[in-house]
Amino acid sequence: MTRIMVVDDDADIRELIRVYLVGEGLTVTQASNGVEALSLLETTPADLVVLDIMMPLMDGWELCRELRARYEDLPLLMVTAKSESVHKVKGFQLGTDDYLVKPFDPLELVMRVKALLKRYRINASQTISVGNVVIDRTAFEVRLPDQRLSLPLKEFELLYKLASYPAQIFTRTQLIEQIWGIDYEGDDRTIDVHVKRLRERFEPLTEEFRISTIRGLGYRLEVKA
Questions:
Q1: Which residue of 37, 63, 133, 173 is 20 to 30 Å from 151, comparing CA positions?
Q2: In whole angstroms, what is the distance from residue 71 CA to residue 68 CA?
Q3: pTM of the predicted model over 0.85
Q4: Residue 67: how many other CB atoms lie within 10 Å
Q5: What is the maximum alpha-carbon separation in the chain?
């Protein structure tokens, strides 16, 4: 049973989301603010959280920060009226996995929820297939149809992180903290260097994926359609 928690102070929005998610066979719990959500999660775990930003007592920014600190691998989807790039960047920096702007199409929300659940489950398997390319974390190698590649550890971890969440944008700060650690004292341009090396390594070998630069935000891995 897959359970989605919806956190929004607008009861009508919560009900709208609930109806569409339940229609897809998902179980839904609801909270009207961040404090209530954290309390409910202690007794009723969720597989994914859909959260608003503007809420009383504890807003979505703080809730996102708390959820990422307490539940490192819990997928998070922000639904908010704020569409400016600066708010999207802040959301990704705090750890959200995806971002949807109000007013939204409920069917798009369902699609994004399903995509996040799929990415999370792929990430938990330790082996990711991108077309005919297999990224194996148990062996720390990348397998193509005609060869196997062993990458430097940080390059492998960066590729694995991006491939675990295809189409998701990661900021440089997120990647530094998640791969090098929050105590890393180097320049976040280290990410640029490693992305450049991955591109040079794989672009001549496969067209199954590419690592794209999202100007003003960061990087994402795009899979061949």
A1: 173
A2: 5
A3: no
A4: 26
A5: 56
What residues pair up with 98 in beta bridges, in sequence order?
Answer: 77
CB 127 within 8 A of CB 138: yes
Dig out the tokens for 166 from the structure: 């295809």
Task: Tell me the C-alpha distance between 42 and 208, whole Å.
Answer: 41
Contacts of 197 (CB under 8 A, 6+ apart): 155
**CATH code of the region 125-223:** 1.10.10.10
- Measuring CA to CA, which residue among 111, 112, 92 is closest to residue 169? 92
Mean pLDDT by 10 residues, the chain (225 residues): 91 93 91 94 92 88 88 87 72 83 89 87 77 89 93 93 87 86 80 95 93 91 85
- For 96, other C-beta atoms within 10 Å of its C-beta total 25
